[in-house]
Amino acid sequence: MPDSMTQLTQELIVEQKGSVALLTLNRPEALNALSHPLMDQMGEALKNFEANSAIRVVVIAGSERVFAAGADISEMQGKTSAEMRADPHLSRWDMVSNFPKPTIAAISGYALGGGLELALACDLRVASETAVFAQPEISIGVIPGAGGTVRLARLLGRALALEMVLTGRRISAHEALSLGMVNRVVPVELFLDEAIKWAHQISAMPPLAAAAAKKSVLSALNPDYPSYPAALKLERELFYSLFDTEDQKEGMQAFTQKRKPEFKGK
Ligand code: CAA
User: Fold this and answer.
1) Domains with residue ranges and CATH for the chain
2) Mean pLDDT over residues 240-261, rounded?
3) CA of 201 to the centre of ligand 1 (A)
């Protein structure tokens, strides 16, 4: 996709801003409910971005009014458990959490249910002062199904995670910041600019080192990862492997020559 080109789709707007891809949820009439077409388009876009070395960071944003009010309830309401199990819809959230390049959620207004889960699947979160976070699924007869109970339990601990999923309690932007659910809170008119600015800052870093850093942190948090020593061993191995990259030579040479490095992603 050429620089700054915008591809308009029905439910997701895909834009490239230099080395940053911006995915904007675009279903205002349904408060950006995460429908099948929307999440399928997101899955396709992520597949393309993974293969495209020109894209180094992905930002997922909603509008000022709403990030996303959850999975699309009207799509799910008549389904049986067998139909839900056979449906790959929720695996689209896993595509976000497993995406190898850094991701940033730009959140304003409601981030509810699957919307909060989408934000939690990203690596970093910028929230506007109006952001509201909750897992209200219990009030419609279900529980979070795209990682909410698990990610909130790890992030917030047992008591608060249970309070959220048992009562649907809402968390404000400033409370989310104090709990470590979001990285930063900014005035509403700045939330997208701030996320994109941050994405550009990260995209200027050597991408192989960024991917290694992300892989190491995610392995440390993965309960299936064999052990703490194994996670430390992986980190050491990733550190060593970067010494075969041109960017490591460039980065260290630029430091000693007191100049700005030019990273190539090699
Ligand atoms: N799915 C489908 N449509 C939705 C929706 C959703 N999750 N959330 C809102 N909408 C639709 C409404 O049906 C309404 O459509 P109509 O105008 O055609 O009636 C439109 O968006 C505007 O919504 P409201 O009139 O309800 O707006 P409001 O300002 O009064 O309330 C709200 C806003 C508090 C976010 C409210 O819409 C709401 O509670 N939404 C549902 C939140 C929810 O339960 N999310 C969890 C979904 S299940 C899930 O996500 C499972 C999972 O883990 C993957």
Assistant:
1) 6-203 (3.90.226.10), 207-256 (1.10.12)
2) 97
3) 34
